[in-house]
């Protein structure tokens, strides 16, 4: 099986060169007391492949959900080709943004072809009565939809499996089917959430070619991935999210050369790190408490010897606590899913 990524046809939803496709400004998403995304700005221009990376729990998928109407951002604004997006998923898809999901969402008991046909529903103009009466207009539209769906399956290399049930496809092919279904809505921007998760190196390479081919059809791409080789090979620009905030954005060399990015992935603290203010406050409070304790000890010299053993014990506890805190402070560790 090979992927037919040789097509140079322009996609129906293609964007004019130079146009800003996506313009997200100050996007913030809070869940109760947790701020999952904080004041993120991001643009994607026509012809670009932009990467979004960051440790587990950094807020990448939440940000995607804010772009696609699944969540209404607590603050901020998202524009697609200059227009503010409506806060409903199907309206966002109709506007021209399509996506795939980190946890594959296919209709498992439908065929491969039917899954792609479902993806076309925002683009079919035949109305309710046409579908009920099944007149010539309906049959013509249905044939056009099937032809387009088969074309997309050929594009991702799954046309020979069009009649298979989606649930019988291997994992890597299910991810490609999700891409075909997303393309069926004829988008101008495609959002991919971890498109190579669970793929072998060969499948990852094919997916890389597929994404370049999608870009060449005039569809801009924003992609989340943990596979750094994939991201840095593919992307014109990469933005790094850490604890909900955009830490760095730039070309591959800029991002790879930024030591804060490495530190964030390793969970090491660094100056001005997102969340660093809160950590500093906690440290200051702890230092203050320690100073007060030392002062109390000095005031009661007689008790010094008796307390020595206890202090040693407390120190051991504090060291253990500090070790725990370091682990917890590693961005996203508690959200490792
Ligand atoms: N619906 C929700 N309600 C409450 N908290 C949520 C919700 N969705 C996400 N979160 C929290 O928001 C934070 C960001 O999660 P998100 O899934 O966006 O991270 P991610 O960067 O996509 O991580 P990963 O790389 O593991 O997929 C996490 O702390 C997560 O638990
Ligand atoms: Mg995610």
UniProtKB/TrEMBL annotation:
Q: Has UniProt tagged this entry with the keyword ATP-binding?
A: yes
Please name the GO terms that the record assigns under molecular function. Answer: ATP binding; ATP hydrolysis activity; L-isoleucine transmembrane transporter activity; L-phenylalanine transmembrane transporter activity; L-valine transmembrane transporter activity
Q: Where is this region: Disordered?
A: 280-337
**This protein's UniProt keywords:** ATP-binding, Nucleotide-binding, Transport
- The source's superkingdom equals Bacteria
The UniProt regions of compositional bias labelled Acidic residues, in chain numbering, are: 299-318
Q: Which GO terms describe its cellular component?
A: plasma membrane
Q: Which residues cross the membrane?
A: none
Task: Please name the GO terms of the biological process aspect recorded for this protein, alphabetically.
Answer: D-alanine transmembrane transport; L-alanine transport; L-isoleucine import across plasma membrane; L-valine import across plasma membrane
Q: Where is the composition biased (Basic and acidic residues)?
A: 285-298
InterPro entries according to UniProt: AAA+_ATPase, ABC_AA/LPS_Transport, ABC_transporter-like_ATP-bd, BCA_ABC_TP_C, P-loop_NTPase
Please list the residue ranges that the record marks as compositionally biased, kind Low complexity: 319-330
Extract the PROSITE patterns matched here. ABC_TRANSPORTER_2
Domain ABC transporter as annotated: residue spans = 22-268
* Identification of the protein by name: Branched-chain amino acid transport system ATP-binding protein
Specify the species: Streptomyces echinatus
